[in-house]
Amino acid sequence: MRWIYIWYFPVVWIAFLVYWQIAAAGAKANQRIESVASGVFRTVLLLAGILLMCGWPRLPILWLYRHFLPQSAWAFFLGAAVTLAGLLFAVWARVTLGANWSRSVTIKQNHELITTGPYALVRHPIYTGILIGFLGTALAVTQFRALLAFAFIFLSLWYKLRLEEQWMRTQFGETYADYSRHSAALIPWVL
After folding, report:
1. Domain boundaries, the chain
2. CA-closest candidate to residue 103, choices 127, 134, 136, 128
3. What is the DSSP letter of 110?
4. Other Cβ atoms closer than 10 A to 171
5. Which residues, at least 6 apart from 124, have a Cβ–Cβ distance to it below 8 Å?
6. Cα dist from 99 to 28, 31, 110, 179, whole Å
7. CA angle 115-121-122, nearest 5°?
8. What are the pLDDT tens digits along the chain (191 aa)?
């Protein structure tokens, strides 16, 4: 049974990343793409969060390794379930978005505004799902470093979300403004 504690999260996250890479193959060509500096900034925040979540390198800041929850089987399995639910939500959103998807902030050729499926619930369901996935992982880790890592990842995705919002308003005008008034960015009825 100990193997599940060691392998669950690496296997789930790697499977997610492999799917993500394979699914990228059918994306439309870019018409407009974010600057290199913007992409690097987001990537640095994201990687800092991921490395901190993984506990590497071990920093000499003791409070990072204190537990905000008791380390227990229930914390692990709650985190495992939340992670899986979040990543499945992101996959649903990715499938719904289809060829309009991109890893960078872009406007695609013949870009379509998708408002069905998970996009009827929130405007950025991929980010919602990924954030839920990382929140679940943080719950399983139970250390403050995982919460700090989650904050870095949130900031990376929030930065990307804000840039995408500007570009979508420019691309789709009043249609996107109306969609924004009727749907939350990340969490229904909250944010």
Report:
1. 35-182
2. 127
3. T
4. 15
5. 157, 161, 164, 185, 186
6. 5, 13, 10, 20
7. 80
8. 677 878 999 999 999 999 999 988 877 778 888 888 999 999 999 999 999 999 887 777 888 899 999 999 999 999 999 999 999 999 999 999 988 888 888 787 888 899 999 999 999 999 999 999 999 999 999 999 999 999 999 999 999 999 999 999 999 999 999 999 999 999 876 76
Cross-strand bridge partners of residue 67 = 143
Q: Is the CATH number of domain 35-182 1.20.120.1630?
A: yes
- Eight-class DSSP state of 100: G
Residue located via tokens 């939350």: 184
Strand pairing partners for 122? 184
The structure tokens listed for 112 are 């379509």
Q: What would the two tokens of residue 166 be?
A: 């500007």
